[in-house]
Known about the structure:
Layout: H1 2-17, H2 21-28, H3 31-45, H4 53-65, H5 70-82, H6 86-99, H7 101-114, H8 119-132, E1 138-139, E2 142-143, H9 144-154, H10 158-172, H11 178-190, H12 194-207, H13 212-224, H14 228-243, H15 261-274
Antiparallel strand pairs: 1-2
Amino acid sequence: MKFIRSLFVIYILSSCQQVPLEYRLQYFYTSEERLDMEARISDEIKKMYEGSLLRQSKLDTLLALNPEKEEYYRRKSFKFSQTGNFHQGYPLMEKAIQLDPANALYYTSWHMLSLYRNYEQALEDLEYYDDITQGVTYVWGENVHYLKGLAYKQMGMYDQAVSEFNHCIYIEGINTSEYVYVYRGIANLRHECLEDAVHDLQTAIDMYSNCTMAYVYLGETKIRMREWEEAKSYLWKAEELLCRGVKKTHPYFEVFDEVQLSQVYDLLSMVDKEL
Length: 275
């Protein structure tokens, strides 16, 4: 008899595994129990490493408990986005935006720009989020005009990029990051507005004396202007900083226009040929 009962329990348990999690939670737990479980798991995952398998599993349970909550789709998408599994992350981002665009786009538009490198979609998302947000708009802590400027720059639309960077500088005033000037300088360089590029890149250096990116692109600008000695001095400074490991980086992606030591050596070689 005990053997038969054991077989019955094993059968029931194996059958349950074939039933979708959301149905098991719906029929085996009361609404109060589901709410308690959701609150408990939400607290638990705050202490877990974002990319862990356990955290992803917990998020699956939260989605089964509350499939209409934007936050769970967004948070689950982060691991896939940060590891380059865009085909898995993108549908989750889309669902989050569908449920609550005002909250989701604060995060997902930044991901679309910085991780997915889909500049047209990122620009569309940033424009929409800016339209539905009152006051000065920030996306993941960044001024929306700075991010729109980056998107335009990456698309080769340098006039529009400069316009957005100008807007950011006007809003931020003395709180403007040196990298707004760096990227405006690069946009001016690429658009052959060399004097404007020099002004922007020198401003960035005045704000942060170890701004490696500014030295590299200022050196390149001086090469375009055929001011060889000045170009060499800026590139030597960039070489020194890079050899010390001083440069703008990000743990999940290569920053826009990230500078490399080989790039500096190539530019110095161009200078040496002219001297």
